[in-house]
Amino acid sequence: VRTPRRYPCGVERWGQLKGTVNEPHSLRLEITDWFPESVAAGEVLSLRVRAECASGCDLRGGKVTILAPYGPVVAAELGPSDDRTFETEELVIRAPPEVGAHDWGLWVETPEDGRQAHAAELTLSPFRTEAHKASLAAWDVPSPTVMGEPLSIKVGVKCAEGCDLRGGKIQVHDESDERLASAELGEEIWPGSDALHWTEVELIAPGGEGLVSWIARFPGSGLELPHNSASSSFGFATTRSPDHQLTVEVVEEGSTVPVSKAEVSLGVYRASTDQSGRATVAVADGTYQLVVWKTGYEAPPSTLVVSDDLTIRVEAAVLPDNSDWEDD
């Protein structure tokens, strides 16, 4: 006898009903929820199984088992729900922790204690478990860094499923893919985030001067559940050891009014002015393009030759406020 099985999603499933008497009764089975076609490995699902005999039989005590090829996943007994329907308590099952395709089934059997016995099996919708998606970020990268000197960066990884990633491996590789350092994610979550595990990675800057591009990687291995690998590039500049101190004073043009929070750059060196309009930068000998920038001000760039400690004043013109202009 072939009997339709009804699911909440509206998809009608068919299974083979196996009766244990000469004229087996028709049995309807219903599952309140099931895994989608693709699900994260180890995903937890809560469900109930309902059963109803077309002849109105008492199904109390019937055994419900969800079966995987390797054996039972969970088992429970049917209890009364209303006059005709019987259901299990809430069952909690977990998708396999391994990545791959899975075909599970449902088996229902009632005892023969003087009542009509029933037995039915149903192949459930197949599903596939996938590795958890992870994302990685690197920050607090010091630039410039003196060539050949130690530097420290922060690296964090977050799982889309909110997994505990402590102990996960972090690796840093250079442009030729040589591993430079490794570290483990710590127990602490980055403040203000919900699941970003992070660590500090200690590195040594290259011995040459210039721009550097390295990559931080999370292989995704060594954890309870499988995770996709994740990576992020980060860059910084290396310079010679600073020889001199350059102080830049930024004032409004034609006055001594200081301009605070102005950005000052000399090649790879960066700073911002304080409340007194001053910014101090330690630089190596060399020739630099000095650029001062702040919204609402304009200052022409200039070329500086630095061979000693130096203080320079920059006058920034105040630009007119165009916010209230209207089109004619």
Account of the 3D structure:
Helices cover 0% and strands 51% of the residues. By secondary structure, the protein is mostly beta strands. A hairpin with a 5-residue loop joins strand 19 and strand 20 (179-184). It is elongated, with a radius of gyration of 34 Å. The termini are far apart.
| Order of strands across the main sheet | 17-23-22-19-20
- Kindly provide the radius of gyration, computed on alpha-carbon positions and rounded to a whole number of angstroms: 34 Å
Query: What would the average pLDDT be, to the nearest integer?
Result: 89
Shape, principal axes of CA atoms? elongated
- Overall SS class: mainly beta
Helix content: under 10%
Largest sheet: 5 strands, mixed
Helix run count:
0
Give the end-to-end Cα distance, rounded to a whole number of Å.
83 Å
Poorly predicted runs: 1-22
